[in-house]
Amino acid sequence: MRPNHTLARLRNGRLAVGTWLQLHSVHAARLLVAQGCFDWMLVDFEHTPVDHTTAAHIFSAIADFSGGRTTPLARVATGSVDQIKQALDAGCQGIIAPMINTAEEAAAVVRWSRFPPEGDRGAGGLAPHLSFGVSRPAYLAEANRETLVGIQIETAEGVENIKSILDVPGIDLIFVGPNDLHLSLGLPAMFWSGHDRFRSAVATVTDACAQAGMPTGILCRDATGVKDRASDGFTFIGMGSDAHFMLTFAGEQYGELHGIEEPPETWCNAIIPPTDRDSARDAG
């Protein structure tokens, strides 16, 4: 069975850098995976509209084109049996479940992600074994070992319960959701900040994970953020997204073309009214 490349790196304490897929374009995913830049690529079911058929094509494109070098993952909409079951049966090699606040919720995620006797995942998926390049019987026998199960901590309650969550067997990764964690703490959403409440919450999670030998992950906007978080000890790090790459490069080129000396903090959030676009083109 083709090993889970990302899971192997995490288990060996090595850095695994990937990216979020928000555009849900099979063609864009193939182009990105062909560059060989990422250890993993994650389809986001939580915050972007994607159907399972499209996701299945993306997962297979990633697994087949990279020959296992890039791991197709899913951030499910919620840690429920239907969301986890359909994502795994669509062909991803691991899931991250968002908004996990208690050990009971974490245990349910593990239960739906593992075949018996470690869990209660049902057999019968038409094609998930193809992502690992094996027969269906071989997949059923070995999938528990090679399927990444990530728990996302992004609320004050989840931070408070991190030690009991870490006691749940079968978790491979604790992923800090920085934007929602900021919001949960009464702060503006952002990837990282120096706010004491945020830094203290992150330290609570990472310190507990370090004591338990659990890999930690986080999402960053760019390569500078990835380097900073890697130096902090995170080993599963997301760098931007397909939408971010497209909007950032387009915005930067637009700004250079029209001499915009004060660009927005991020082109991903920029909305330029048509009248302003006309003014910029006329000035240029």
From TrEMBL:
Q: Report domain HpcH/HpaI aldolase/citrate lyase positions.
A: 20-245
Highest taxon listed in the record's lineage: Bacteria
What the entry lists under InterPro entries is as follows: Aldolase/citrate-lyase_domain, HpcH-HpaI_aldolase, Pyrv/PenolPyrv_kinase-like_dom, Pyrv_kinase-like_dom_sf
Q: Which Pfam families match?
A: HpcH_HpaI
Alphabetically list the UniProt keywords: Lyase, Metal-binding
Gene Ontology MF annotations: lyase activity
Q: To which protein family does this belong?
A: Belongs to the HpcH/HpaI aldolase family.
The identity of this protein, by name, is HpcH/HpaI aldolase/citrate lyase family protein
Q: Which organism is it from?
A: Amycolatopsis albidoflavus
State the organism's lineage: Bacteria, Bacillati, Actinomycetota, Actinomycetes, Pseudonocardiales
